Amino acid sequence: MVDHAAIRDVAHRNGPSTTLLLILRLRTFIALALVVAFFGLMAPNFMSVANLVIVSKHVAINALLAIGMTYVILTGGIDLSVGSIVGLTGMIAGALITYGIPLPFLGVVVWPNVLETMAIVLVVGAIIGAFNGVLITQLNVAPFIATLGTLYVARGAALLLSNGATFPNLVGKPELGNEGFPILGAGTLFGIPLSIVILVVVALIAAYVAARTPFGRRVYAVGGNERAAALSGVYVNRVKLAVYVISGFCAAIAGLIVSSQLVASHPASGESFELNAIAAAVLGGTSLSGGRGTIGGTIVGAFVIGVLSDGLVMMGVSEFWQMVIKGLVIVSAVVLDQMQRTLSRRARLE
User: Fold this and answer.
1) pTM score, whole prediction
2) How far is the CA of 251 from the CAs of 61, 68, 81, 126, 325, in angstroms?
3) 101 is a domain residue
4) What are phi and psi of 41, to 5 degrees?
């Protein structure tokens, strides 16, 4: 329970700075309430159940990417490759359903079922994440450069898989035993879209791991002070490698959902998704310097970005202005984060 009387007493004793600090800590929830209220008033049918379900499905994709991104940023890193991993893993799923796995030396084609296809795609996403982790931990490549390079490699590989074409109509064939892929994007569980169910499950697991497990404490320790963490016995490189694997795995989940919703795979899928994921994490209170942030805050941040994007579309705002507004939101989130850090440091000194 929140002791409101205690909060008021602290605010009275320490003056406006404490009140401002409290507002800054709650900024993501305040921002979400404001954007929902604004578009509820200004955009027709924004608050309808059907539209809220659509918004939630859009948010689920960004939130899954942002969960992995949060783990990476908590260690003081960054992953610019997640959008390209979405595109590549979606194309791999499309290729497996369309062409199977040819084995020329045996003269046969193996047709994996839907679960096997998903498992292969998830493993590929984790491997790409591990590749990023190896570049950063073993070859000492800066995270920005390593993941930027992987961004181009993964996007190029996605284009090469089909020579830039789309894999359409990914429904599978009964005689091949690979039907059912569209269910992931269009199916429901107790009336709730599967993409939202997957987000809830992944978010709960990620939040528990971050807050309640030794691994989660090590992630925060590495981001807070890498040298101190190493001196205290934390295997820093292992932790860094693990968070990039988590990020790649989450991106692969998003890639599967995107392709399933479209019932098609396009090599350009996921373009600029990494920017939305970073924005959601930062807006949710994750510090770009590492060591501070929560999965819950990231989910709320993803909803702010999702509501903002869909609300602007419903109001007919130009796509160019949408980019400007998103950019301003990201810059504002970083500025507010810096203000919070400064006020927190000042409050501790008092």
Assistant:
1) 0.89
2) 9, 8, 9, 9, 25
3) yes
4) -85, -35
Count of C-beta atoms within a 10 Å radius of residue 17? 14
Q: Is residue 30 part of a domain?
A: no
Counting Cα atoms < 13 Å in the Cβ hemisphere of 39 gives: 26
| Domain presence at residue 260 | yes
CATH of the domain at 102: 1.10.3470
Q: Is 14 within the bounds of a domain?
A: no
Query: Count of CB atoms within 10 A of residue 211's CB?
Result: 13
The tally of domains found in the chain comes to 1
pLDDT digits (tens, 9 = 90+) for 249-288: 999 999 999 999 999 999 999 998 998 999 899 888 898 8
Range of the domain at 67: 39-349
Q: State phi, psi for 167 to the nearest 5 degrees.
A: -90, 105
**First and final CA of the chain: distance in angstroms?**
26
For 276, the 3-state DSSP assignment is helix
Instruction: Kindly tell me if the per-residue pLDDT of 348 is higher than 80.
Output: no
DSSP-derived letter for residue 264 is: S
